[in-house]
């Protein structure tokens, strides 16, 4: 049986090409090339190749690691029971968890 060859990726869409040109025009060659290693690293694994953005683990997080893990377990348990979890449901659980952690309801309420 013949070994199948990998399918080459589709060429970039014109919007993607335009975005690259716009970025280069605004930021210059140095800034454009400074992202080359990061992009090459992201493309090298199937888990991150299709992502549109990236942030360090924990960046922008206000909840504790334990609370985030509790929310993940809650989502998994709900899905295991056949209950679809909506954005609004997760947001409500996260807001309640933030209040339980001692964040002011006023501060938490600003994120609604």
Report mean pLDDT, rounded to a whole number. 83
- Provide the low-confidence segments as ranges: none
Instruction: Please summarize the sheet with the most strands.
Output: none
Shape: extended
Total number of strands: 0
In total, how many domains does the architecture comprise? 2
Q: Radius of gyration in whole Å, from Cα?
A: 21 Å
Q: How many helices in DSSP terms? A: 6
Helix content: 55-70%
The termini sit apart by 58 Å
Q: Approximately what portion of the residues adopt beta-strand conformation?
A: under 5%
List keywords for this structure.
single chain, 112 residues, mainly alpha, 2 domains, 61% helix, extended, HTH_CenpB_DNA-bd_dom, DNA-binding, Homeodomain-like_sf
Describe the structure.
It comes from Aphanomyces astaci. One of its GO terms (molecular function) is DNA binding. It holds the Pfam family HTH_Tnp_Tc5. This protein is mostly helical and 112 residues long. The chain has two domains: 14-49, no CATH class; 65-109, no CATH class. It has six helices and no strands. The longest helix has 21 residues, at 14-34. The termini are far apart.
Describe the secondary-structure layout.
Elements: H1 14-34, H2 36-43, H3 46-49, H4 65-80, H5 87-100, H6 105-109
Helix pairs in contact: 4-5
């Amino acid at each position: 049986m013949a070994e199948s060859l990998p399918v080459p990726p589709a060429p970039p869409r014109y919007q993607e090409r335009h975005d690259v040109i716009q970025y280069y025009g605004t930021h210059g060659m140095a800034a454009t090339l400074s992202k080359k290693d990061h992009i090459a690293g992201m493309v090298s694994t199937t888990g991150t190749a299709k992502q549109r953005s990236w942030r360090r683990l924990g960046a922008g997080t206000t909840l504790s690691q334990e609370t985030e893990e509790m929310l993940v377990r809650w989502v998994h348990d709900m899905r295991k029971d056949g209950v679809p979890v909506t954005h609004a449901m997760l947001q409500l659980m996260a807001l309640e968890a933030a209040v339980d952690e001692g964040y002011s309801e006023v501060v938490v309420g600003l994120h609604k």
